[in-house]
Request: fold
Amino acid sequence: MKTFLGHRIWMYLIAATVVSVGFARTVAAQLPEEPRVGSRIRIGLPDSLRVSPFVRRGQWVAGTLVRATPDTLVLHVGGANPLYVARRDITGMAVSEGASRGRSAVGHAFVSGLIFAFATYCVDGAEGNVTGRHIAIAAGSGVAIGAVAGALSPFEYWRKLKR
Reply:
């Protein structure tokens, strides 16, 4: 028994279990999440006029939540009149996490770095002159350009609500 527990794998297993328990999220009741009044939300509404095979039927409407009742959401979309939406008509709901320059910069940098590196690999491969240095320079250039573009034009992030 001593040799069985003396293996180093058990030490790693116990450490991994302790770390997993430490990072575990708390479990909440299974009630649907409710957006707070005053928060910016986006709701999905059905739309029977969009009949493309690759496009989701419906449209997204974003606005500030003015009031929430058990059967209706009231949104301020723009203008003087609020938009009243029955909860049974809502196909999806998300709450805005805001626009983050840092998060947008990282996302743009990663994607543009991959695109630049792949394009350089394809062009150099066609010429028979593929070198790691060219690909690294292209990836670095893509990361720099993407980071600047992402920081200058941040986009809004949405978190879907469980219904």
User: Anything to note?
Assistant: Helices lie at 2-6, 8-23, 101-127, 132-152.
